[in-house]
Each structure stands twice: as C-alpha cells, then as structure tokens.
C-alpha cells in the first residue's frame, strides 16, 4: 500500500469519479484550490460554533450570517476557481470571526455579568453530583436555575468539566448555590474522569466522545451535542437529569486544590499601566500567549515543558482546554501581577486580542513589535478560525502545533508560512531562545528596549 499522501478528495457533485476526484477534479479544480476551499469551510465551522453560542443567548448579527452563506456558496461546484479570492475569503473569515468572538463576549457579559478572577475548588462537596462539560453556559444556567426552582440546591452539587471551568467567574452563574467546583482536566481524559464521577454527566458541545459502558447509562446530551443511544435534552428542560442525579450515590466532602480562572480584558486593562512599567523596567521580559486545544498526541508534552521552562520574568496568558496540562502549577507573581492568567474558553482569546491591541497602542507599536509570542495548539475548527483572526490582524511568527493542518496541501501551507512566518513547533529547547529573542529585536527608540 502506498504511503503517498492523497492531495485532494472531493465527491460533492455527480461529476465525481468513482471514489471521488483525488488527483484533479473533473470540473477543473486542482488540489491547492480544493485545500483552500476546505480551509475556508473549516474556518466557517469555527465561526458557526461561536455564533451558535451567541445566538442561543439571543444575540444575532446580520453580517455574520450573510458572510457564512456567501463564503459557503463560493465552495459549491463550478462557482469560484480563483485561489487568490479564497485566500482573501480566509482572511475575511478571520475578520468575521473576531466580530463573532466580540459578539459572544458581549452576550456572555450582558447575560451573566462581568467575569472576575476566582479560585475554583477541585475537591468535592456533600451531595448528589452533576458534571457539565462543553461550552454552553446557557445550558449550565438553565440546569442551575431548574435545580433552584425544584428546591434542590442543598441536595445537588454541579461540577464543571474542561471548557466549562470559566463559568465560575461569571457572577450570575456563580450566584447559584448548587454550582460547586471543577472536576477533572481537559476532554482528552473524559472516559476515565466520567467513569470515576459517581453522578450524572451532561455534554453540551464538543469535546465529547462515545461513552464507556461504565457511565453510558448516566450521561445526557443537550444543545448541539449528541451520542448514539444517549438521551438528548431538548428545550433546556433538565428535569430528567435532575431526577436521575437524585438516584445516584451521594458524594462526600473531600478537600482538593484550587484553580484560578476568570481573567478578562475588563479586569486586566486596569493593570496595563503597571505591566508597561514592569516591561520598561525589564522586570517583565516577555509575554507568552500559550493556548488552544488539548489533543491526544504525545507532542502536547511540548506545551507542558515550554511553560515549565519559561524564565521567571515572563508571564503567560492562556485560554481553552490545553491549559489543563499546565494550569495547576504555582507560577507566582511579578510585583503583584500574576504570572499565569487564564482568560477562560477558546473564544476568550478575544480578551487577549483586546489587551494586546491596547498594549501596542499605548506603546505606539504595532502588534509584531511587542515582546509577545503566540503559541497555539489546535484540535478542531474553532482553533482554526482563531488562527485566521490572528492572520487577519497581521500577526506574524505564530507557532502552531502539535502538527500542521492535514487539510492543507504542502504548497498552500508553504504559502501561508512565507506570507505570515507561520512556524511549526519543534522542541521547547530549540524554540524558546528564538521566542525570547523577539523581545530584544526592537528598534533603538523603543521604550521596551530602554
Ligand atoms: S466539484 Fe469538481 S472535484 Fe468535486 S466532485 Fe465535482 S467534479 Fe470532482
Ligand atoms: S478547546 Fe478545543 S479541544 Fe478543548 S474542548 Fe474546546 S473545542 Fe475541544
């Protein structure tokens, strides 16, 4: 069997060859054009995911909806063969995605309040347990509200899992007595963690995987999530989940650790003057944005090691679930500024972008002149949409891993690499000096090099 990579596979129309067009389309589409179309579609999937969560809270935007329709239309058979136009559409996806993240942030803040940093317990509390995973705060809110309405806040404790962790930082979610703490790490370990959790589990979106028999009879899906043979909760009516939880063994109080989350541009902007002062004094040498998905790939060890190797005069901004590999360490502070700031879910990269733009503005620099390095880990299409936003913003020298996108042909990846200086992670030992050096290549008149 040949190990040569198939550069394209398209079977979307009736002109398809048997098994799909795999060398060149009967329509004339070549592998690079096919790759660009797929790259666009994957970015649109990411935009759709965030738009969905804004939409489920009642927030809509005509421009986002219109762009999704137009961009998808361009990928139909015999519509657009212009590769340059697809590169433009990919960057336009980045712009629209920034707008979508902004809309979702507005939806979260206006619905659940302005987030504040919180210490989230990782132990357990006395009572029956419900574990909520995925990204839908709307589903979590409805569940907590219904527990309260049924008078069961002392009987049932709700735990967040993976990307649901930052829910604790929103006042209108935190005010529910039933919301207790965080259980487990990222989605990658869910089969073991769900097996060990004695209560009921609710999956609200990705990442959820087909269940083991150990917990298949006590997991539910809601919203966009679905699992074969698992009951699905429609219309956010969690009565069946709550009643089921009452039949599961009570959990005992067990003290655990604490995880800090809930940083947001609204609570970090007031610290920016101090951060600039520390940069100018050389006390903060470099800012690392290390975030993104967790992936069951041994190369994810790169992120664990890199964060461990960072010098003490650097700070880390993070978001999404890859952080569970390195968020339980005590990174300490630099003159009161925490060295590790968790901004929450993947969409909260929006806050990091707002802060970076403000930092650049106050320093009179463009984003690429800042002593900032972005290191992304990607699993799925939301991370791809975030990457497009960063490229749209003109940010160069982004490191991505744990592997290059399989959906890009080598020549399309090379094109992006050349245009945006996109870098694949290698080893922390090799990459770290180059990352740190970025902070020392500023112009002589830069206040940062003073
Ligand atoms: S759109 Fe083109 S490449 Fe795709 S199946 Fe039809 S003919 Fe083949
Ligand atoms: S950050 Fe990515 S990998 Fe993690 S739960 Fe969200 S979608 Fe899945």
TrEMBL record:
Cofactors, names only: hybrid [4Fe-2O-2S] cluster; [4Fe-4S] cluster
Alphabetical GO biological process terms: response to hydrogen peroxide
GO molecular function terms attached to this record: 4 iron, 4 sulfur cluster binding; hydroxylamine reductase activity; metal ion binding; peroxidase activity
Enzyme Commission designation: 1.7.99.1
Binding-site residues for [4Fe-4S] cluster, renumbered to this chain: 10, 13, 21, 27
Top EC class for this record: oxidoreductase
Parts of the chain that traverse the membrane: none
Primary site of residence: cytoplasm
Domain of life: Archaea
Cofactor binding description: Binds 1 hybrid [4Fe-2O-2S] cluster. Binds 1 [4Fe-4S] cluster.
Sites bearing Cysteine persulfide, chain numbering: 293
Cellular component per GO, a single term: cytoplasm
Entries under InterPro entries matching the protein: HCP/CODH (IPR004137), Hydroxylam_reduct (IPR010048), Prismane-like_a/b-sand (IPR016099), Prismane-like_sf (IPR011254), Prismane_a-bundle (IPR016100)
Presence of the UniProt keyword Oxidoreductase in the record: yes
Places the protein is found: Cytoplasm
Family to which the UniProt record says this protein belongs: Belongs to the HCP family.
Protein name per the record: Hydroxylamine reductase
Organism: Pyrolobus fumarii (strain DSM 11204 / 1A)
Name of the gene this protein is made from: hcp
């Amino acid at each position: 069997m040949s190990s040569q990579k198939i550069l394209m596979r398209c079977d979307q129309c009736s002109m398809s060859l048997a098994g799909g067009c795999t060398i060149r389309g009967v329509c004339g589409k070549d592998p690079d054009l096919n790759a660009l179309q797929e790259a666009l579609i994957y970015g649109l999937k990411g935009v759709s995911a965030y738009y969905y969560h804004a939409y489920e809270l009642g927030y809509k935007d005509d421009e986002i909806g219109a762009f999704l329709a137009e961009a998808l239309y361009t990928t139909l058979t015999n519509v657009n063969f212009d590769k340059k136009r697809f590169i433009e559409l990919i960057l336009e996806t980045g712009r629209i995605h920034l707008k979508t993240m902004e809309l979702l942030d507005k939806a979260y803040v206006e619905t659940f309040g302005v987030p504040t940093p919180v210490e989230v317990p990782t132990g357990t509390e006395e009572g029956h347990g419900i574990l909520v995973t995925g990204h839908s705060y709307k589903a979590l809110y409805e569940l907590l509200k219904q527990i309260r309405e049924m008078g069961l806040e002392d009987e049932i404790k709700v735990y967040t899992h993976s990307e649901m962790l930052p829910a604790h930082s929103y006042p209108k979610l935190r005010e529910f007595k039933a919301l207790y703490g965080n259980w487990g790490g990222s989605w990658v370990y869910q089969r073991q963690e769900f097996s060990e959790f004695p209560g009921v589990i609710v999956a609200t979106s990705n990442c959820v995987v087909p269940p083991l028999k150990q917990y298949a009879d006590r997991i539910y899906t809601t919203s966009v999530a679905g699992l074969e043979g698992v009951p699905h909760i429609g219309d956010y009516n969690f009565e069946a989940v709550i009643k089921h939880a009452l039949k599961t063994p009570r959990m005992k109080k067990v003290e655990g650790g604490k995880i800090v989350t809930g940083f947001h541009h609204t609570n970090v902007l007031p610290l920016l003057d101090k951060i600039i002062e520390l940069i100018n004094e050389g006390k903060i040498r470099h800012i690392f944005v290390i975030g993104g998905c967790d992936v069951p790939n041994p190369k994810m060890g790169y992120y664990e090691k890199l964060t461990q190797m960072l010098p003490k005069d650097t700070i880390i901004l993070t978001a999404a679930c890859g952080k569970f590999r390195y968020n339980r360490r005590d990174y300490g502070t630099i003159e009161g500024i925490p060295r590790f700031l968790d901004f929450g879910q993947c969409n909260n990269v929006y806050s990091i972008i707002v802060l970076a733009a403000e930092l650049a503005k106050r320093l009179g620099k463009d984003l690429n002149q800042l002593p900032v390095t972005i290191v992304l880990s990607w699993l799925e299409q939301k991370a791809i949409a975030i990457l497009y936003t960063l490229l749209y913003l003109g940010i160069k020298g982004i490191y991505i891993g744990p592997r290059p996108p399989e959906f890009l042909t080598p020549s399309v990846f090379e094109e992006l690499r050349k245009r945006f200086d996109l870098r694949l992670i290698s080893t922390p030992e090799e990459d770290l000096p180059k990352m740190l050096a970025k902070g020392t290549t500023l112009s002589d008149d830069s206040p940062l090099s003073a």
